[in-house]
Amino acid sequence: MLKKVADQWYSLQKIDNDITRIDEPHVTPWLRCNIWHIRGRDQDLVVDTGMGICSLRDAAKNLFAQRVSALATHVHLDHIGCHHEFDECLVHQAEADGLRSANGYFTLVEPGFDPNDYTLPALGDQGFGPIISALPSPDYDLDTWRLKAATVTRTLEEGDVVDLGNRHFEVLHLPGHSPGSIGVWEASTQTLFSGDAIYDGELIDNFAHSNLDDYVRTMRRLRELPVQVVHGGHGKSFGRGRLVELVDGYLRRFD
Question: Which of 59, 111, 143, 146 is 20 to 30 A from 103, alpha carbon to alpha carbon?
Fold first, then answer.
């Protein structure tokens, strides 16, 4: 059993006056999702919400001073753990049922997952190791951890706009990693919040619901997009040069 107790569960990094990156440093890198908080004039947007091991709203309550919507780039368990804490939840229509039910098909582990194991049953044969490296509190009972269903208030499709008043994000359907993977694109700043469609790390395209043909099309589309900044679902943010390198490296597999 784990003995180490984390001083704090979430790490917050201010990117600029409007954007804050949040992650869970004691979660294995495979599941350490980037949570993006974007401040708007009329409302805020949270892109993905992590594992849900601890309350995101409590940990980052100073950020949530006004109306906030939680957008799921897709519904793998490392991206939707705290969506249930938000009154307004946005997700692509292809994965809306997964967010509403939080029970299986779009998660990384099997429905019978035992959190006391600290391993990834669906991936364990590949040696990915423990889910967490510390407990969030001395008395925390990981056996109580479960994904919780969220209330979907808006389903998204290609071309929809998420309007924060002074900032406008266009929804891009970027399937391949999962059927309803999306990114949100701000043309005025040439900034993309890409979820797991692309990030600076090993991209995963071999889930049962992944689709290689879709992923290739997504990569080609991303290469043509005039992106200058990518805030991905995992790892560090990067610029256009690195985006092209990652896309070209992926596409070389299919030459």
Answer: 59
Q: Which residue has the tokens 């510390």?
A: 134
Burial grade of 254 (CB within 10 A; 0-12, 13-18, 19 or more): exposed
β-partners of residue 49 are none
Contact (CB, 8 A) for 142 and 26: no
Q: How confident is the chain (255 residues) per 10-residue block, as mean pLDDT?
A: 84 97 93 96 98 94 94 94 97 94 56 54 51 87 82 98 98 97 98 98 90 98 98 98 98 92
- Determine the angle formed by the axes of helices 240-251 and 212-224, rounding to 10 degrees: 150
* 116 DSSP assignment: G
* 230: β partners: 192, 238
Domains belonging to the chain, first-starting first, are 11-254 (3.60.15.10)
Does pTM surpass 0.85? yes
